[in-house]
Design goal:
One of its GO terms (molecular function) is metal ion binding. This is Geranylgeranyl diphosphate synthase type I. The chain has about 350 residues and is mostly helical. The chain is built from 16 helices and two strands. It has a two-stranded antiparallel ribbon. Strand 1 and strand 2 form a beta hairpin. The longest helix is centred in the middle third of the chain and has 32 residues.
């Protein structure tokens, strides 16, 4: 049964979204006043950041902050949550270009919007290159705005922030290479899964929140936060992989079987390949093909089920979540953050979007 978002997640999201609006609205107005051509690119940042998203990273950052002794109403952690959302937007703008994705959260992707504008206006050059170039630059702007929100953070927090951004980009490099090389090794697929998403979604937001609250307390909690955050981050991305292969487009905002069409090196597909018969492997070899049809996607989905890969991954998600909750139970923190982190873990593995 799908999980309902914890009430605290919704409250944290409201605060973070208000802060994002405070930051982005005057910036849009400032640059549009300089040159009207900047209005649409700047508006794209606001559109992506404020029209969807689960706000999980701000929530984990918030409870890491509270766990280390920070006050729940401290604006410092709201700024950090907003920084995470802008940094995530940077990754999405670029990821959509790399994947040549047509939609994001049920709306056209930014590079598609600007490629179509180029076509409509009859401008010189190649529409695709123009759209991708604008989207990359918009992502870079979001990256800079995320940094601005962490101005004044202590040295420990800055070290974590820089490391998580390196990890994110390393994960994206591995993901791109894994896609073109057809990586189907389970261990390698899980490493990509952890670095491209899991770490910067759960472990590092917890770390950053705790470090912002009290660097010395963070040092005491770091190992325990990782023991909770790493396996839960794996489970989070594995759930994403299930939705990427089987999710309903009306719920996910992405095409059905998108990860299969793109040939993503996911732990789900790696498990299917490892367990496949010769006949089943021939079906799975169509994954990622440029001419993959809807029928091919459906056949690949059924084969993944038939090999037992889906059931195996679901079992792995449960096992890693149990490991995370066991680590959380052993962590020396107050009852409130423990209770809220437990609720977030349940939501992360049972969500459908």
């Amino acid at each position: 049964m799908p999980a309902t978002a914890p009430d605290s997640l919704l409250r944290i999201a409201e605060r973070v979204e208000a802060r994002l609006d405070d930051v982005l609205t005057p910036e849009l107005e400032r640059w549009a006043a300089l040159d009207a051509d900047l209005a649409e690119p700047m508006a794209e940042i606001r559109r992506l950041v404020l029209t969807g998203g689960k706000r999980l990273r701000p929530a984990f950052c918030h409870w890491g902050f509270v766990a280390a002794g920070g006050a729940a109403d401290d604006p410092t952690v709201v700024d950090a949550g907003a920084a995470f959302e802008l940094m995530h937007a940077f990754a999405l703008f670029h990821d959509d270009v790399m994947d040549d994705a047509a939609s994001r959260r049920g709306q056209p992707t930014t590079h598609t919007v600007f490629a179509e504008l180029h076509d409509a206006e009859g401008w010189s050059g190649e529409s695709r290159r123009f759209g991708e170039g604008i989207a990359i630059l918009i992502g870079d702007l979001a990256f800079v705005y995320s940094d601005r929100l962490l101005h004044g953070a202590n040295a420990t927090a800055w070290g974590i922030w820089n490391e998580l951004r390196i990890e994110l980009n390393v994960g994206q490099v591995l993901d791109v290479l894994g896609s073109v090389r057809g990586v189907r090794d389970v261990a390698q697929a899980e490493r990509i899964c952890r670095y491209k998403s899991g770490k910067y979604t759960i472990e590092r937001p917890l770390h950053l929140g705790a470090a912002l609250a009290d660097p010395r307390r963070f040092a005491e909690l770091e190992a325990g936060l990782s023991a909770y955050g790493l396996p839960l981050g794996d489970a989070f991305q594995m759930r994403d992989d299930v939705m990427g292969a089987f999710g309903d487009e009306t719920a996910t905002g992405k095409p059905v079987g998108g990860d299969l069409r793109e040939g993503k090196p996911t732990p789900l597909l790696a498990r299917a390949i490892a367990a496949a018969t010769t006949e089943q492997r021939s079906v799975l070899e169509q994954v990622g093909a440029a001419d993959m049809t809807d029928a091919d996607v459906a056949a690949a989905q059924q084969t993944i089920v038939d090999t037992g890969a889906l059931a195996d991954l679901e079992s792995t998600i449960e096992q890693r979540t149990e490991a995370a909750l066991a680590a959380l139970a052993a962590l020396d923190i107050d009852d409130e953050p423990r209770r809220e982190l437990t609720a977030l873990a349940d939501f992360v593995i049972r969500r459908e979007i």
